[in-house]
Amino acid sequence: MVEALLVVGLVVAVFVGFNIGGSSTGVSFGPAVGSGTLSKTAAAALMSLFALAGGWTVGREVIETMGGKIVPAAQFTLAASVAVLFFVGLALLVSNTFGVPASTSMTAVGAIAGLGAATGTLNADVMLRIVGWWLVAPVVAFWICAVVGRYLYPYLDAAFAIDRTPGGILEFDGRRPRIADDTTGKELLGTVLVVVIACYMAFSAGASNAANAVAPLVGNGSITASQGVLVAGAAIGLGAFTIARRTLDTVGNDLTDLPLLAALVVEVVSASMITFLSAIGIPASLAVSATMSIVGLGWGRATRTTTIGDAVSGAIGADGGDRERSEVSVNALAAERSSAADVPRVGEEEGDDLLAEDLFDAGTTGRVVSFWILTPTISFVSSYALFSLVPL
């Protein structure tokens, strides 16, 4: 009976990892795919490799936190572990069905917290520490990117603007690949950087999310941490090659249309944030940090048309009357300058220069944020209800 239940537990863990791959691949490689740097298949292959590397190294700290610090490890009976993983997978499946990159860590912690609340064993201090970082991390990511967008991005764009030439980066001369004749040095360098940093994001995603698939099974001793990472890595890879195609479209095309330079900024900030949190054992959301980085970068860049006070106050002036409002739009990132000397000072940039297709679609952004709230709520409520009614 125990062996049969363990098989069920492993199947459910693979199901969770499969959905993690679907969600995290979009967040990690969405900017690279959306900018045309990588194909979806190449993104899936790189995601599989680097997520496994992240789980095998830094991810062990997160497995330890989720496997025995939020609730005592003794609470993770085999039946309870299966139930927790099932609720995580169910919530993520709902999110991925709608093509939204869910907050996997928040969903998993919600299910474990439901177990702890129902059994009276929830470690409040650990939960407060985790939730505190959940609130702080996206705010920090937003403001770092907002500062970069407002004060640094135009100068970076003038010095390091990365243009895409028609066609691919590489051509094939017979069977041998070579750099295409039209490919510029900046374009080649930018492409390499985008791919490298996307792999860094995949590493951070694996570090944070491998625990979400296997922590309960590791916590109760059914499998070792190394075995758990291998199971999670394989399942994440499966999800990356299948259902991740929808979330790649959402992040890479629907949510934003990022120039390569902007993609670099977003990837560096969000991946560094999650790698740091994983190293200190905090199960954090790459989806939240990446999306808030995108929004912060665009908001900061667009507000160069106004003083900081006007940007914060929006359309309402000091005298209570209407004031022309600055739009957050893609030309805020796409408008190029030939040199740093051509960049206007803050408050002197013309609003017309920043008007075009929106940097981020408000409807899509609202849908993403709503699912960040919905998925952990589903997992917590379901878990709490089950463990309150049926002692496992």
Mean pLDDT: 78
Structural shape: globular
Number of H/I helices: 14
**Helicity level, as a percent range?**
55-70%
Give the spatial strand order of the biggest sheet: 1-2
* Oligomeric form: single chain
Distance between the termini: 15 Å
Number of domains: 1
| Strand fraction | under 5%
Which regions have little confidence, pLDDT < 50, spanning 5+ residues? 315-332, 351-358
Describe the overall structure.
The protein is mostly helical. It has one domain (2-389). It is 69% helix and 2% strand. The chain has helices spanning 2-34, 40-56, 59-68, 78-97, 104-119, 124-160, 185-219, 225-241, 244-254, 260-279, 286-302, 308-313, 331-334, 362-389; strands at 170-173, 176-179. It has a two-stranded antiparallel ribbon. Helix 2 (40-56) packs across helix 7. The longest helix is centred in the middle third of the chain and has 37 residues, at 124-160. It is globular and about 65 Å long. Mean pLDDT is 78; it is low at 315-332 and 351-358.
